[in-house]
Amino acid sequence: MEPAEKIKVALVDDHKLFRKGMVELVNNFSGYHVIWEANNGRELIQKFQTETAPDIVLLDINMPEMDGYETAAWLRQNYPKVLVLTLSMYDHEEAIIKMLRAGAKGHILKDADPQELKTALQALIKKGFYYSELVSGTLLNSLSRDPENNKKAADLIKLNERESEFLKLACTELTYKEIADIMCLAPRTIDGYREALFDKLQVKSRIGLVLYAIKTGHVVIN
Predict the structure, then answer these.
(1) CATH hierarchy code of domain 147-216
(2) This prediction's pTM
(3) With contact defined as beta carbons under 8 Å apart, do 133 and 204 qualify?
(4) Do the bridges between strand 83-88 and strand 56-59 make them parallel or antiparallel, or are there none, so unpaired?
(5) 176-208 in b/e burial notation, b at 16+ Cβ within 10 A?
(6) Counting runs of H as helices and runs of E as strands, what totals does the chain give?
(7) Cβ-contact 208, 136 below 8 angstroms
(8) Residue 112, Cβ neighbours under 10 Å: how many?
(9) Alpha carbon 186 to chain centroid distance?
(10) Are 166 and 213 in contact (CB under 8 A)?
(11) Is residue 197 within 8 Å of 211, Cβ to Cβ?
(12) pLDDT in tens, 175-184
């Protein structure tokens, strides 16, 4: 049964042929409708001034004039209720971490299966975030957009002072070797901290650490 009102989606990407295909794909998903498109962040800002605000923005990272990082940060500052899903060819941790810190709520590769995109859109609306296999289901289920629930989740997992320090540094663009130098520890010791936190927080990657830190307030996005 079709919902009374469809989820409004905006698509921001500088490749017109790719956008055309994405518009058709999203519009074929039950309950979703692309209301407008933009070539880059600057055009997105103009659209927000003249068009209806979307519920979700599908956002590329590499764009001319105003890239995905700047655009996500602008949306977080001006339209915090709009959910940003990064849609990019970038799959390295540094880019994803930077987008998370800019305010993105999820990341999906452009060559992903269409079903994954549908799953991501559904997760954004239901849970407020989507990170695929980068984060375990246990952590996803424990965190939500509700600050009280996030605080409860943080209270259940106690981190010592050094673990908290490492977690905050892991949420930057520093390499693990640079983190080791800052903490005056051997790289092998840092590897131990990383693996211990992966196990304690039930995450699978550095992206999972970042998500946990942001959701529980260990890292505050300004």
Answers:
(1) 1.10.10.10
(2) 0.71
(3) yes
(4) parallel
(5) beebbeeeebeeeebeebbeebbeebbbebbbb
(6) 11, 5
(7) yes
(8) 13
(9) 31
(10) no
(11) no
(12) 999 999 999 9
